[in-house]
Amino acid sequence: MDDLLYLVHRIPWPPNKGDKIRSHHILRYLAQHYRVHLGTFIDDPADAAYLPELKRICTTVCARPLPRRRAQLRALTGFLSGEPLTVPWYRDRELARWVRTTLIRQPVACAVAFSSAMAQYLPEGGGRTRVVDFVDVDSDKWTQYAPTRRWPMSAVYRREGRRLLDYERQVAQASDASLFVSPAEADSFRQRAPEAADRVHALNNGVDAAFFAPEAVAGSNPYVAGARTIVFSGAMDYWPNVDAVVWFADHVLPGLRAEHPGVEFCIVGSRPAPEVAALAGRPGVTVTGFVDDVRPWIAHATLAVAPLRIARGVQNKVLEAMALGRPVVASPQALEGLTATPGHEVVAAEAEPRAFLEAVSGYLRAPDPALGQAARARVLADYDWARNLAHLGEILRRRPGRVSGTVSIEEAAHGR
Length: 416
Prior knowledge:
Elements: E1 2-8, H1 18-33, E2 34-42, H2 51-57, E3 60-65, H3 68-76, H4 78-81, H5 86-89, H6 93-105, E4 108-114, E5 129-135, H7 138-145, H8 153-173, E6 177-180, H9 183-192, E7 200-202, E8 229-233, H10 239-251, H11 253-259, E9 264-268, H12 274-277, E10 285-289, H13 295-299, E11 303-306, H14 316-323, E12 328-330, H15 332-335, E13 347-348, H16 353-365, H17 369-382, H18 385-397, H19 409-413
Parallel strand pairs: 1-2, 1-4, 2-3, 4-5, 5-6, 6-7, 8-9, 8-11, 9-10, 11-12, 12-13
């Protein structure tokens, strides 16, 4: 096996949130074909318990702590250097030293960075294949955040959107391949970075369809018998998720309960933000916080909702609900990049109170089991991890050297 350097901004174990699901499955694929040297950060101390699992499948592991307060202070240096704040947030001398040592001691043939911020550690030269998995166009996400915040944070987010796009373009230009989570996301980046368009690829997410199978959780109902429950699942300290559930509780749920008394809204996900925790005191709202297994909460709900107003890429919450055979009512933003057919495999509704209320209420008035069945069939057809990750293998087997005379990653980080 060849040696491969894999740099991930958050420990890719366990696969319990969006980015970690993708990085986890990529790691498992890489470990089957390469001797993997993993450099990563631990932002939740509880995740340190999973280091033995990483060391079992990787040749070497460097996992650095990333306390939020320290990262925030480092990020502020970006105002002085002109960098996007995301880059110094993930800057660490010890990780950089470990990367340099690994490259000296090991015959690394390929280097893969998961998220643009980790590209700052990618080695220059050496005849190695360099790949960056951007996942989403993060710069656009910050631009979308800006109108939702008051000054001065609105100005900070607009700045981050601009500076991060410049950085993303330069990183892509200095890499052999840039990966995105869907064809739609890849096309979006090609429009923003035409100079690197020929090296931009879509690498679709997948779903563990055996794990997320209705029969796997058939007997473990967490809800009161006979309850009609609408579920939203996801990391509840992530702003787009926070915005979505607060909006639904404020603008959709009251009208829904007036038409369908007894309907419950269950918010399932770890680390609820204060705005989310405050919803638990309202009639018909449950906030679970962390749960050991999200599957029963989704599988036994009447339907799942994804009323995202801010989104990029592919929403794993939608794919997992589809895999469990649940009907999903989602905004166009939440469905972007998915191959699901609205009206046949999912229900699409604008994140506008009347439209979303009517879509959810319409399903409650006339449930259609065929919708969930078609949703699972779509997942089985298009979202198999093994099949989708085979494309990554093809990219890594290509010879490097397509990129020449481009700006270095270090220069890109500083906007030069």
